[in-house]
Each structure stands twice: as structure tokens, then as C-alpha cells.
Design brief:
This protein has about 575 residues and is α/β, with parallel strands linked by helices. It has 22 helices and 13 strands. It folds into three domains: about 80 residues, Arginyl tRNA synthetase N-terminal domain (Gyrase A, domain 2, 2-Layer Sandwich); about 260 residues, HUPs (Rossmann fold, 3-Layer(aba) Sandwich), CATH 3.40.50.620; about 180 residues, Isoleucyl-tRNA Synthetase, Domain 1. It binds arginine.
Amino acid sequence: MKDEICKWIAKSLVNISEQEVTKFMEVPPEEKMGDFALPCFSFAKVLHKNPVKIAEELNSAMIEVQEALGIEKSEAVNGYLNIFMNREKYVKHWIDKMRKPDFGLEKTGAGKTICMDYSSPNIAKYFHVGHLRTTVIGNSLYRIYEKLGFHVVRINHLGDWGTQFGKLIVAYKKWSDEETVKEKGIEELLRIYVKFNTEAEKEPELMTQARSWFVKMEQNDEEALGIWNWFKEISLKEYSRVYNLLGITFDSYAGESFYRDKVPALVEELKSKGLLKKSQGADIIDLSEYDMPPCLITKSDGSSIYHSRDIAAVLYRKETYDFNQCVYVTGLEQSLHFKQVFKAIEVMGYQWADNLIHVPYGLVSLKGEKLSTRNGNIVYAEDILNEAIERALHAIQDKNPDLRNKEETAKIVGVGAVVFHDLFNQRIKNVDFSWDAVLSFDGTTGPYVQYTYARAKSIMRKNNKKVDYENIDFHVLTEDMGYALIKALSGYEEAIEKAAERYEPSVIARYLVTVAAAFNKFYHECPILHAEENIKRARIILTDLAQNVILDACGLLGMSCPEEM
Ligand code: ARG
């Protein structure tokens, strides 16, 4: 209905597009200012008219069409056009729409493919909070885009190649053994990696050995690859525990190592296009013209590097998946890296360079300091999740000891708390990690939203009847609280579209809080089960829609909801 109104306004204002009207149309802070309001200030320049006049003219013209647009009345106030919907029509429109599968959402992504590159931890290192962020954000974006009909290829671009594995092999041979690594896993790999770095400062010769082991890996040396592969298996097994807790799977684990044999062809292509330059023995693409440092392609010993493996990867993905977009979710500190990679694709003459998108997120710090494995300033994803589950279990034992499936519920609530906390703020904001903030169950949190769902569910259980969408007295739902809830629910489609457009799951998280608050108000002020039959039927419909939307939107964030809590 809002779209129709925007369309009509755009038609009435020469030289203003529907998109512009939509962009400025807002939901006023107070009910008495209408359901929608259009500030006309931004149109003044183009229309050579003052905003007060624009609003007044629109207001007079609107009288003729208001009936058709489902508007009750409009008014012009200080340059604003305030629009009041006919509540009954509005309620009917949205209930008809939202009872449909997928809430009648337009599948704008049908027939289109997105490659989503996220999580991508580095082998032989722990899965820390930073990687938890890319994992959770990427997973949510995958779900949001899939909802819009896109085919999404979920890619875990593992950091499983590079000189660091040369270091690990040297360290393993010098300071560890099969037994210990088998027993301790990543912990041991990390220990010897740290030891290598300390020792190499005193004994530079170690670095030479590490480099030559990595060159061996690049030359497919059997022993080198054997050890490397084993380390990789150990790491993946540990990561899978985190993925299982989060309920996350991938379509491809083709990481950096997968592209090592594709770099030579890239080098040839760059040479033939005259793009490769020698610099201190290394091969580079000069990007000074674009105010960027050169993009390194191969090192002086001929080995590939993070950049060149990423360029090879995107060429491979384009060929394999023919994507419409390739999205990378990583920390902000990799922005330059992706600028260089995308620019390289552009100068190679690929027009689809425009379809490569870096989605950065802010740094995670701990007590104001950078996370670092070296000085032990680190928080592990698995610990966070387990601790959250533990605390949820305590809370349940405390508040609802008779609950069935306590463990299962604690898992859903604990994981939900972590996921929601990660997604609630704009992704670009830096986060100073605090256990208390992540594990708080009060305020705008995952458990609050889940609790609201459980509350709605419980009403539906008590009602214990099939929901009757055929005989609704829509008029009942025009009183303030019901109407406010319908308005909140009707924003779902827009929230999904906005979240997708901005690659911003926080839009959904915030939307969920709005819906939960509207439902809780409605619940407190409008008796549902004890109301008269026709009122009860109508309010049950609202409750049903609210629980469906909350469950579905939580799904878009990658969290589920328990039926009871
Ligand atoms: N492994 C990298 C890291 O942990 C992230 C990889 C992101 N994806 C990519 N295609 N470069 O920082």
C-alpha cells in the first residue's frame, strides 16, 4: 500500500522519481502524525517551490485518490504530508498478504547466483571471536539472500596455504611428535608455531628452512603435503564443533590451497595482457595509477600468495558458478586487499569486477586491546558458545525447573544469545568483547526475542484450534495495540530488502526487537484467550502471524526459537 502511495506521489511531482519518494517516506515517531509522513524539504530545490506549498498541494490532490489508495485522511503540516491509513483496509491487506507462504515476498533473486565467501578460518589456528563474526554475518546474509530467491553458494575459503605451513612443518619436526599432536590437536600446533616464531628471531636459518618446506609443498612434495594435510584434518575437525553448534554448513571448502595450481595460468594471462611487472624479483601488478600499492602475484621464489590465490579463486568461481555477485565477509583490516584484488580483475578487462563486493566488519578487541594469539589476549568461539549454553541452563534451572528438554532449550537460547548479540549492532562497529554483554539475557537480546516467541506459542497451544483465516472481523484489529502490531509485522518485507541491499543483518535484528516489543504490548493490553469469540479469533490471527514472523526472522539471523522457555 505504501508503494502505491509513493507511486502516486511521484506521478504528481514532476521530475521526482518513485525511488526518491520511497527513500524519504518515513514512519513518524508519534501516532498522531499519521502512519506515514513525507517530508517535502528535499524536493524544494528541484521543484522550485517551498516545502510547505508542496505538502499542501499534495494534500489537496490526495482527496481524489485517497479512497483508492486505502487512505483515511491526510494533512499538510509544516512541509510534511502526513498520511493516515484506513485501518481496516490496511489490516485486511496485510493479513491477506502475510498469511501466504513466505509472506508474499517478491523473489527478486530468482535465477541469480551469489557466491558468499565467509568464515574462512586459518588452518592450525584457533577459531576466535573474529572468525565467529564473519561466520555469523555470512550465514545470516546467506539466509537473507536465499529468502529473496537467490541461489547462494556458501564458500569456506580456508586459509590453508602459505609460508606459515612451512614454519609448522619445521617446528613439528624439531619440537613435537605424532602422539602429542594427535592428543592435543590445534593446541599443540599453536604451541610449536609460537615457539617457531620466538626461536626464529634468534636463529634466522629456521626461516630459510620454513621457506624451503613451503616451496616443497608448492612442488607437491609427498612428505610435505602429507604433514600439511594431516594438520588440516585436525583443524577442520575442531572447527566442525563450532559449525555444529551454530548449525552451519558450507557448499564448498575450497580454500587457498585449492587455487595453488591455478596461479601459473593466472601469471600467463597477466603476462599476455602486459600487466605483469618485475619488482625485486617478484611479479606484481602495478596499481600506482589507482593510488594503491602494487598487487603481489608471485614471490621471488616463485610461490603464490594470498592476493594471487584470491584472484585465481574469483576467476574460477566466475567460471564455475557464473555468479551475479561474489561477496566477501571479512574484517575491515582486509579492505585494501580486496580493493587490490577487485582492481586487478578490472584491469584484466573483466566487466564483472563491479559485482565483487567486500562486506567488512569492525574489529573485535578484548579489554580495549587487539586480539592476539601471541600474548594470550584471545577468546575462542567454542568457549563463548559453550559458556552461553551453560549460563542459559542455569537460568532455566532457576526460573523454570519443570521445563522439558532443558538441555536442548539451553542450547538454542545460549547460541541464540551469541548470534543475536553479534548481529544486533551495525557490522562495521568495533566491538570490545565482554562476557557480560554477550551473555546478558535482558534488554534487546536474543533470549528476549525467543521468549516473546515462546509466549505467543503458548497462547496458540492453549487455544488449541486450527487458525481460522476465513472469518475475520478486521474491525476488531483497528484498535491501537493490534493496529500497532500489524504495522510492525507489515515491515518485514522492507526489513529483508533493506538488510539485503546493505548487507546488514542488524536491520533484521532490530526489526525483531520492534516486533517483539509490539507483540508484548499487545499481549499485555489486549486479552486474547478470554476475549469474546470474534475478538478472540481476530487476536489469535495476530498472534499466529507474530509467531510466524518472529520464527522466520530469527531463522534469517541463523538462530532458532524454543517452543517453551
Ligand atoms: N583466511 C582469512 C583470514 O582469516 C580470510 C579469508 C577471506 N576470504 C578470502 N577470499 N580472502 O583472515
